[in-house]
Amino acid sequence: MHLRIGHLYPEHLNLYGDRGNVIALAKRAEWRSIGVMVESIGLNEEVDLSQYDLLFIGGGQDRDQTLIAKDLKLVKGNSLLDAADGGVPLLAVCGGYQLLGKYYRLSTGEEVEGLGLLDISTEAGAKRLIGNIVLETELTGEKQTVVGFENHSGRTFLGSEVKPLGKVLSGSGNNGEDGFEGSVQGNIIGTYIHGSLLPKNPKITDWLLTRALERKFGQVQLQELNDNLEESAHQVMVKRSLS
Amino acid sequence: MRFIAVLIGKALIFLVRLTGRGGSNWPGKVVRKLFPGILPYLSLKVEKNILVTGTNGKTTTNKAIYSMLTQAGFNAMYNNTGANLITGITTAYVEKYGQKNEFATLEVDEANMVMAVREIQPQVVLVTNFFRDQLDRYGELGKTVQLVKEGLSLLPEGSTIVLNADDPLTAQLGMQEIDKLRVVFYGLQSNVLRNTAFADVSDARHCLQCGESYVYEKNFYAHLGHYHCSCGFRRPEPTVFVSRLEDRGSSGFLAEITSPQGIFTVDIPLPGVYNLYNLLAAIAVALTVDVPLAGIKEAVRGTGAAFGRMERLLLGTQDGITKETLISLVKNPAGFNAVMETLLEEIVEDQLLIVVNDLDADGRDISWFWDVDFETLAQKASNEIVVSGLRAQDMAVRLKYAGIPEERLVVVPEIEKALDISLEKAKSRLYILPSYTAMLKLQDVLRKRGQVQGYWKTEKKRMRSA
């Protein structure tokens, strides 16, 4: 078995250690003897994204994000829409999450059009929402916590076609108002959570890997791994945030 | 009123010292409340004020400038507790009031630059570099650069800004229209060092002017080097630069400096390319304010590490067996990579202890662990690694995913216990890489134990905790 992982714009969207997500996906596949190839996909590169088995896009600084918005629209837009239609699992964090939505309204009132892959829209907020965050999610079918760190000024609001990734137990989440964080639509997960997200939340990593393998090879059962270390790092933050 | 405010401030500082408690910020805070114009008043009493800002190397560089000044016979003051917020800086001036100083040299937190420049109106500002650091405090790197830029725009006419030519983010500060200021660039000549072996997830690999990736003819470390962009932006030619270099490993460097004041050689007793930059920056500032070469050379030779910056100590285990211990602060990916690059060959030979907290002063977001090139360490290391601190488990996860087998990771969150376990495990040398508050905690433990038996290599007095 073999997976091809595409890391979108790693040169530009690399602000908060989000590459840990790609490292986690690759390692947890390798530990199960699933071959992995990680490819960087940069600005202005025209590629067929539906040829990938898993895609990741992170967050960046404002300046870089404007560059990426343009590239997504003019260069990779159709290809990414095709990939999503074909069910390629995609994880988008922070800036990447916002870019997949319908639009981002700047503080000046100007609207930057997004890709519209996720039924969400984002508005600039006055105060940055910064801190540790804990969610409760049912992504994998059973209730579990998600831990990480959020740092965003955008306020994201969900439309009717997406479900939130989870309920906020501690922290701010999508917009600091409705008590939810992230979005799930088909095989796409969008979230504000850094940390990186995946290493300390191996269940989400495995959910993404499972979606990717199923799409390629049909029904699969992932081999269990020893997650004691990940679990203890996870629990430290659950305890600290909820006590 | 001013005089009373200073007296109250001095009394508060005395009380703080008396109780042995840390905290050099709040006397300044109280005095500023009582008399908001106190800092402009006090700094005016000093003939020349120098500010040192940037992400990495402020403390070491500022201390080096201070020793160059005093070595040359000037009366000078500096904020020696590393308290670099406007309140701590105020405390420093209050404390030194009455001393008739010719120079004050102060490290300033980037976010406090606007206030510091406005109130102190310095003659010289040094900007060392910009790296990703404590994003949860400043939002993002671009914002930090912006804050410093704003500070520089408030400088009085005729001031000098001293900038690192090899860091594009810093260099660009001196390349716009600033005709009322003098700009001095410093850097390393291309052939003095090889390219870095450490992968950089960079902060600044893209041109601020046009967004294209820089082309590096030479990459010394992180995003520092000789770079240019297709839009025409390129590294400015420095006037103070290292023109020849002998790398003496963990003993430091012998560097030939070329400057308008002449070509001279300095003996730098600190290892690491970043320390080379720190000393070079200090030399560029000293030359700017006409410190004689003899004073500069003497001061460089006597440079000691600031506490926890490549500091070497002799520590005993509980059975009284002495182990050489090296402590080096790590606070962001570029700094972490640089320390590992300098020490890699040594670290993999003996015991490594990494201690990471996530308190405010460390930065609460630990996502940056994932931007450190631990993969290079994992390829070489074969020993156990001890991890400690509030985020010990997170560091263990990071190292596991870098390729270090779980059975070689020893997780001991409690810092004092981790220190003892690591000392036991060390064959003859222990390398401790702590985050900021973890470093203070270690310092505390060592002081309480009175366990410091002596120093090797560098001689210096340990600083009080900030």
Tell me what you see in this structure.
The complex is a heterodimer of chains A (243) and B (466). Chain A is of the alpha/beta class. Chain A is 31% helix and 31% strand. In chain A, the strands form two sheets. Chain A has a six-stranded mixed beta sheet with strand order 2-1-3-4-12-11. In chain A, strands 5, 6, 7, 8, 9 and 10 form a six-stranded mixed beta sheet that branches. In chain A, helix 1 crosses helix 5. Chain B has a nine-stranded mixed beta sheet, with helices on both faces. In chain B, helix 9 links the parallel strand 5 and strand 6 (182-188). The longest helix of chain B has 18 residues, at 2-19. The A-B interface holds A 11-12, 14-20, 23-24, 27, 61-64, 67, 128, 130-132, 149, 151, 153, 194-196, 199-200, 226, 228-230, 232-233, 236 and B 132, 135-136, 139-142, 201-202, 205-206, 208, 211, 213, 333, 364-371, 391, 393-394, 396-398, 400-402, 406, 409, 411.
Task: Explain the layout of strands and helices.
The complex is a heterodimer of chains A (243) and B (466).
Chain A (H helix, E strand, L loop, with lengths): L1 E7 L10 H12 L4 E7 L12 E4 L4 H24 L4 E4 L1 H5 L3 E3 L5 E3 L6 E18 L6 E15 L7 E5 L9 E2 L1 E3 L2 E4 L5 H4 L1 H16 L10 H15 L1
Parallel strand pairs in A: 1-2, 1-3, 3-4, 4-12, 5-7
Antiparallel strand pairs in A: 5-6, 7-8, 7-9, 9-10, 11-12
Chain B lengths: L1 H18 L6 H9 L3 H7 L3 E6 L4 H14 L4 E3 L7 H10 L7 E5 L5 H8 L3 E4 L7 H4 L2 H13 L6 E5 L3 H4 L10 E7 L26 E7 L2 E5 L11 E8 L5 E7 L2 E7 L4 H16 L4 H9 L9 E6 L5 E6 L5 H15 L3 E5 L18 H7 L4 E4 L3 H11 L6 E3 L3 H11 L3 E6 L1 H14 L17
Parallel strand pairs in B: 1-3, 1-4, 2-3, 4-5, 5-6, 6-9, 13-17, 14-15, 14-17, 15-16
Antiparallel strand pairs in B: 7-8, 9-10, 10-11, 12-13
Helix pairs in contact in B: 1-2, 2-5, 4-10, 4-11, 6-8, 13-14
